[in-house]
Input
Amino acid sequence: MKNRTRDTRWLAGVAMFAAVQLLLNVTGIGLIPLPLIKATTLHIPVIIGAVLLGPLGGGILGGVFGLCSLWTNTMAPSAMSFAFSPFLATSLSGALKAVWIALGCRILIGVVAGWLWIGLKKLKVNDLLALPVVGVAGALTNTGLVMGSIYFLLRPEYAAMKNIAIEMVLDVVLGVVGTSGVAEAVAAAVLVTAIGKALLHVPTLRPVAEH
Output
């Protein structure tokens, strides 16, 4: 009965955070269109979900993030949408690369955040330190994997889109990581700490290991 209660609570938690992600996406504040890119807030529920629901829950929520990204980039494409929607690719290999960037990279946000939280808790790190660390790590996992994958898998296409020499792509990618990536990491640290700390005090939402 105890395991069944935990399973039910876990499933309800995954559904709740997935619903939050879908709400963010349909209201337009999950993926915010900017010149050439879409800024995201969808990684925040993924990271918080990973803290409360573990790496598996975080990975599932990362998949929801990826599906939202794929949908938005297909239905409302921007200059960068070729990297996130297989339906905009011109070849099978391009479609597979887009699936990896849109889905694979986002699934790993939750996996990394979930296991990092477990590791920090085993080391008895205080929540007020562990939460921002996990927030930053999750956000940088998103930016680092996405931009790194674009560099290694779609460098020619990215150079053509930006109208720059292919040799300049690394500098531009690092620039995105150092600006948008750092800004999203700081925001994640603040939001994950504030929201996560509040939710950790709710008995039915505390991580299973703490019950």
Notes: Helices lie at 2-26, 43-75, 92-122, 127-153, 155-162, 169-200. The chain has a mean pLDDT of 90. The first strand starts at residue 31 and ends at 33. The radius of gyration is 18 Å.
